[in-house]
Every structure is written in structure tokens, then in C-alpha cells.
Design a protein that fits this description.
- The chain is mostly helical.
- The protein has a domain at about 40-95.
- The protein has helices at about 35-40, 45-55, 65-75, 80-95, and strands at about 20, 30.
- Strand 1 and strand 2 (about 30) form a beta hairpin.
- The structure holds zinc ion.
- The site of zinc ion has 7 residues, from helix 1.
Length: about 100
């Protein structure tokens, strides 16, 4: 057996179970069991998703489901809420082309 080892896109260190569709964006990523069970998403995917929603809907507030994804993702990635909001703002500016 010579299975290729894939690293989880969310935590970046555990071996992934496989590649699955993201629950929040039309992309596929490798998830390990623990991140998948918690419902976490790759940080970058989350930032882009939230930035996109804010762009479409000014004053957008995260749905309870997305809020949960955000909480677990930030926890696993070790990223603060403050840094997350900054990254969303940067991404939003990129997306809007300004
Ligand atoms: Zn993981």
C-alpha cells in the first residue's frame, strides 16, 4: 500500500481523511476527521465567503451556522476575531476591485 498522504487544509498538520466539498463555498478541500466533525473550514475559504457576503449585502451579519463555522475555524487556526475582521476587510476590498 502506498497511500498518498494529504494534510488537512484547516489545521494544517493532521492527516486528512480525504477531499470533500466545503460546506460554505463551492470548493473542495482536504479535511481531517477532527476538523470535519467540528465543522471547521479552511481559514481562507471562510474569509472569502464572509467578505463576499458582506459585499453582496452591506451590514451583513453572520448566520448562526456561519458564526459556528467561524468560531471553530478561528479556534483551530489560532486566529483572533480582530485579525479575522481585518482579513475580511482586506479581502472585501480586493473583491470589490477598489
Ligand atoms: Zn484538520
Amino acid at each position: 500500500m502506498n497511500e498518498p498522504k494529504m494534510i488537512c487544509c484547516v489545521c494544517g498538520f493532521q492527516q486528512a481523511e480525504g477531499v470533500f466539498s466545503s460546506r460554505i463555498a463551492p470548493v473542495s478541500c482536504a479535511y481531517c476527521k477532527s476538523c470535519s466533525e467540528k465543522g471547521a473550514e479552511p481559514y481562507d475559504v471562510l474569509v472569502t465567503r464572509v467578505a463576499h457576503l458582506m459585499l453582496l449585502q452591506p451590514g451583513y451579519e453572520l448566520s448562526p451556522r456561519l458564526e459556528h463555522v467561524k468560531q471553530v475555524t478561528l479556534e483551530i487556526s489560532g486566529i483572533t476575531e480582530e485579525k479575522f475582521l481585518k482579513d475580511v476587510e482586506i479581502r472585501r476590498t480586493d473583491l470589490s476591485g477598489n
